Each structure stands twice: as C-alpha cells, then as structure tokens.
Amino acid sequence: MTRETEGRDRSLLQVRVTVADSEPSIWRLLEVDSSLTLGSFHQVIQAAVGWQDTHLHYFTDTDPNIPPSALKGTRREPRRWVPEAIVEDHEDALPESEWVLGDVLTAGNRHLFYEYDFGDGWTHRLELTGSRPALAGDPVARLVEGSRRAPLEDSGGIHGYQDLLTALADPGRGDHHEAKEWVAGVIGPWNGFDPEEPGLDAGNDALRHLFAEELFVGPEASAIQGLAHRVLPGARREFLAYVASAGVDQPALVDPDTAEAMTAAYLWLIRRIGNDGVSLTSAGWLPPSLVQSAMTDLGWDRSWIGKANREVQTVPVLKLRESAQELGLIRKFKGRLVLTAAGKRLLDDPVGLWLFLARSLPHRHRHEAELDAALLLLLEAAAGKRTAWSNVVEAVSFGLSMLGWATSAGTRLPRTSVQELLRGPRQILLNLGFFGGYVGLPATDTTPQERDFARAALQA
Fold first, then answer.
1. For residues 33 and 264, what is the distance between their CA atoms, to the nearest angstrom?
2. In a 3-state reduction of DSSP, which class is residue 339?
3. Cβ(350)–Cβ(259) under 8 Å?
4. Bridge-partner residues for 250, per DSSP?
5. Please, how many CA atoms are within 13 Å of residue 153, restricted to the half-sphere of its CB?
6. Does pLDDT of 441 surpass 70?
7. Tens-digit pLDDT profile for residues 337-355
C-alpha cells in the first residue's frame, strides 16, 4: 500500500461508496486514512465492496454518466486519475499513484466517482460524509456499515445483474439452472451466494490482509495465512471468509480417549510391530496372519470382500503400512518391519501420536503443489461443509487454480492430477476415520473431533 504521510497529521475520512443505479442500493461506509494514494484507495474499494480486481478502472471528479456542461460560459474539463501503467494511453489523465485521497476528497469537493470494468460500466459514487483525527491503533481502512453483496463480475452491468437475480429467484425460468451454474463458476465453492449479505466481516478481514495486519492472534494460523497471501486477489475475500467459517484460529485440543480412538489404526500397527519387529514374507509383504488380524481388529473386514489375508490384495492394510512408513513411524530393515525412534516413542502415547500425525500430514516430504493441496484439504476438513469426496476434490481443485497452479497450457489441473496430489494426505485422513473411513464405508459429516485435528494440522 502507498501512503504519503510526510508533513501530515493522520486523519480518517468517512466515505460512503454507492454502486450507481443499484436498487435496493448497494453501498459501503468506510473509514479510510486520508493519506492513502488513489491507487491504494482503489484496492480498498475492491476489498470493501467485494470486487475481484480483474478489470480496468479510473477515478474522476464528475459523474461519467452525465455529459460535462458549461458553467458561466466556461466548460470545465473533468479530471481523471488512472493506473500509472496506462497513463500514456489516456490523454490528460493523471497518475493515481501520485495523488492523495485527502487532497481530492475535501470539504469543498465532497464527491468523487470510481468507474470499474469499462465493459459492464460499474459506476461508484464516493461521498465524503465526515472526518476525524486518527487515534493510535486505528486501522488504515475499515468497513463501518453496508448493504447488499457486490454484483458478480462480468454479469453485464447493473441491469444484467438484476436480470441474473431474477433468474436465480425463479426455478420456473428456462435459464434458472444455467444461472445457478454460472454463479457457482464465478464465486467458487468457498462460500454461498446471498445477494442481501454485505459481508462486512469478510470485507474487514480482506482490508486487514491488504495492509499486512494480523488476521489472527498469535502464530496459530501461519500456514493458512501463507496461502491467503498467495491466493489471487480476486478470490482472497471469499477465501478469508471461508477460513473464518472453518474456525482455523480456534484452539485445537484433544483428550486421551479421542486420540486413542482416532489413531487406532496406527496404534494397532506400531504396537503389533513392537520393539521386536515383524518378519516380512520372502516377497517383502506382511505375514498373512497379521493382515487378517488387522482387518478383523480394526473392523475393516465388515465391508471387505475376499479372504483379506494377503497384503498385496488387501488395500486397507497395504495403505496403512505404506502411510506409516512415509510418516516415519516404521521402516524396513533386513527383511523385517521395525519401529523408528518416533514409533517407539509414541507406542503408549495416543495424544502424542495424534499431534505427530497432525504436524506431519501437511509438511512431510511434500513438493510445493502437494503442500498446497494438503493445506486446502485440511481447510475442507476443518470447515466440514462437504462429505462427498468428489466435492472435496472440486473445492481443492478450485483452490489450487486460485493459487496459480495450472497445466502448461494455462488450464486448470485435471482431476486426476489433483487426486494424485491428495493421495498421501487423504490416506492419513482415511486411516483416522475421515470421510467415512476406508473400505467403502459411506461418507459422513465431519465430526467436531475431526475438525479439531484438521485445525491442529493447519496450526502446526
């Protein structure tokens, strides 16, 4: 953010931002530092109103929808401020990065206009309604009040947006289903669409993020903050609102009984291996008797077809063993499975194992794309809003695209690629009972205990 503070007493301007011709009115009341440049104020408007900053914009001191008129025989040319990158393309335009809000919105000139997306033509009327001295601790910009959600990007201007709302409200219209699909594609899976909800909390979160203020108290949400900094600006507000709904900043606690129940599969395996280890077959597999015991003791045999005594054909046990190896709980040594130092330490410590898994899941042996996918998966688990795996994959896929991951052709990663990125972390969650557990059990709602685990993993 850019401010011009030298030689100035810091003051806050109260500015009402209204989307022209919206009915009922779409508006926001802001308190904003008078020393912000117009370029920075553009970003404030985007975050506060709820736009995605995917189109050009400019400021002007006259209504762009009313032709200039002569005043006492003299026609005053309107002033126009544009981004510095396009100043040369606009004759007589002024660079918005060199003009300060407090010098443009004044007691003698209380109105300004902000035009966004020259195709759809979203005009915003900016009105100075008051000012006060800034106090210690006052944010650079904050939302005070507001009404209604911002229109959707590329919805065709105010009349196109109103027609879209009519189609959404009438299931009997021929274009109702198409309108719903279009909206879902624009806003993504993180939050629903409510045209009456202004999202003041989400707007203030976005403003705090814009000015690099802490979104959460303490270091707990550092991983998710890292994602928020990298999410494309247009989706950041929705992402931050979803993070808030997931309660990522809330304490993630576990009691011994819950830890024992959730980590039962890993505990069973490391305890059966024990300090003496387990001999593998000549082909390098777990002994059939141990495979069969695992399926029976863990209850996995109830929905499994087959003898369930050969590891290579008994996927739940195979995946459990592979996962424990990848996590560093067990290892192969001279034809045997033995415990690592971590495995030995956690044999009789379910809470410690729970914490070990939470800390290891997002970060162990992950390339950057795998880490991003794991964090997005944990966010889905913490939010607990989706139970079907296909919907979870779609949400993670959208998140990866908002983080800039794409194919060499610039398109979204295919579903198969996303699922491969999620293979390891999903396996850990399945072994912990998430998404209905393993071996074909039906998906279930995420439990409070599972959401605590996901939050602990995000806070690691």
1. 55
2. strand
3. yes
4. none
5. 16
6. no
7. 999 999 999 999 999 999 9
